[in-house]
Amino acid sequence: MRRLAVPFLLAAVLTGCSSAEQGSPSAGDKTGAAPTTGSSAGTTPVNRPKAVDLKALDPCTLITPEVKTALGVRVVGPRDPLPDYGEGSKTCTANFEDRTYVSSIYTLVNGGVDRLKRTVGEAELTPLQVAGYPAYVNKVPKAGLGPGCDVYIDATDGQLLLVGATGDSKSTVDATCEQAKKVANAVGPVLATK
Known about the structure:
The protein is globular. With 194 residues, it is α+β, with helices and mostly antiparallel strands. The chain has helices at residues 2-16, 65-71, 113-121, 173-191; strands at 37-38, 46-47, 73-79, 91-96, 101-108, 125-130, 133-143, 146-156, 159-167. It contains four helices and nine strands; from the N terminus they run αββαβββαββββα. The strands form two sheets. It has a seven-stranded antiparallel β-sheet with strand order 3-4-5-9-8-7-6, sandwiched between helices. Strands 1-2 form a two-stranded antiparallel ribbon.
């Protein structure tokens, strides 16, 4: 009996210290670098331009002077984070010159696409690509005084960048979604540089 236990124990120990990459045995990634692909759903690899740890990101840095000019942003500033988005989440709000819309960028650090599909509902989400990142749109017919729209960008496993827009009482949900997508498409390329 003891003869059988030793080889199994040895095999278990050696398996824990191996890598799928030939010639690179390790107990894990010691570099701390985030992979560019991963598994947001735990099964299928996700192709991203760059995996970005949103706990280390200030979302206001995504609205560069160029983005601000291109979008007609009047004011940008941080806001208190929402506790529902996890410990270490951050929020940035942008007000536009035309004052029809307000946009906020949130870092969601307590769950990725799987959690999004469970909480919002997969049927409510429309997939799209934002600067090479997988993303999802959720239309919100009534968000405060007017319609809202959320674009969730799959920035890294277990974390999402949420770009939301809320329109005034005269706005339509479709126009508000166009605004949210416009902001997401402007900040997405900046995200890939972080």
